[in-house]
Automatic annotation (TrEMBL):
Taxonomic lineage of the native organism: Bacteria, Bacillati, Bacillota, Bacilli, Bacillales
Family classification: Belongs to the Ntdp family.
HAMAP family: Ntdp
Superkingdom assignment: Bacteria
Location of the DUF402 domain: 25-162
Cofactors demanded by this protein: Mg(2+)
Listed EC numbers: 3.6.1.15, 3.6.1.6
Catalytic reaction annotation: a ribonucleoside 5'-triphosphate + H2O = a ribonucleoside 5'-diphosphate + phosphate + H(+); a ribonucleoside 5'-diphosphate + H2O = a ribonucleoside 5'-phosphate + phosphate + H(+)
Catalytic residues as annotated in Swiss-Prot or TrEMBL: 30
Free-text function comment from the UniProt entry: Has nucleoside phosphatase activity towards nucleoside triphosphates and nucleoside diphosphates.
InterPro entries: DUF402, FomD-like_sf, Ntdp-like, SA1684
Name of the molecule in the record: Nucleoside triphosphate/diphosphate phosphatase
């Protein structure tokens, strides 16, 4: 991994990395064991995986069912997992902190809210009850709530405008690169 500053490391293209999500209280939430880095800059990490092992915080394990392209940004409070299925592209958007990375993994704090986008462009905000419960339990500051609500709006506009990970070209380009690297 390439060192950036004194606290952050960027994985190199073609490197196999882990992705780790945490909760606001610092507890580990979920780990994706193997993702191939397709692009790595100070602002964006794009990865690809297929049938990768996922380990939940309670120890449960499962394996993803289809190829996916993962998009992380250093400024936006969301990441996007684009799942390539026979009936089209499904996007699962996690509202959470911008990514950080070190020698161990690409990491972010998951703030419960998610947006699911269907192949026809319809999308739904999910897990608002879980968000409110964790917001009270873990005492999310009001500033985090404002940032997350703003990023739901940003993400909604990206989806409607077919920007970034929601464009057809994005999936075509990065999935082809993933097939070349795996």
């Amino acid at each position: 991994m390439e060192k950036v500053g004194y606290w952050m490391y960027l994985p190199k293209e073609k490197e196999i990395i882990q992705i780790k999500s945490y909760k606001h209280d610092g507890s580990l939430h979920r780990t994706w064991k193997k993702t191939v880095v397709l692009k790595s800059t100070e602002n964006v990490i794009i990865g690809g995986n297929d049938h990768t092992l996922v380990v939940e915080s309670d120890g449960r394990k499962w394996v993803t069912r289809e190829p996916a392209i993962c998009y992380f940004h250093s400024e936006y409070w969301f990441n996007v997992i684009s799942m390539i299925r026979e009936d089209g592209i499904y996007h699962y958007c996690n509202l959470g902190t911008p990514f950080a990375s070190d020698e161990e993994a690409v990491k972010y704090i998951d703030y419960d809210l998610d947006i699911k986008v269907f192949p026809d462009g319809r999308f739904h905000l999910l897990d608002e009850g879980e968000y409110e419960q964790h917001r009270r339990q873990m005492k999310y500051p009001d500033s985090i709530d404002r940032i997350l609500r703003h990023n739901v709006d940003v993400l909604s506009h990206w989806i409607l405008d077919k920007k970034g990970p929601f464009s057809k070209d994005y999936i075509d380009i990065w999935y082809e690169k993933y097939k070349e690297y795996r």
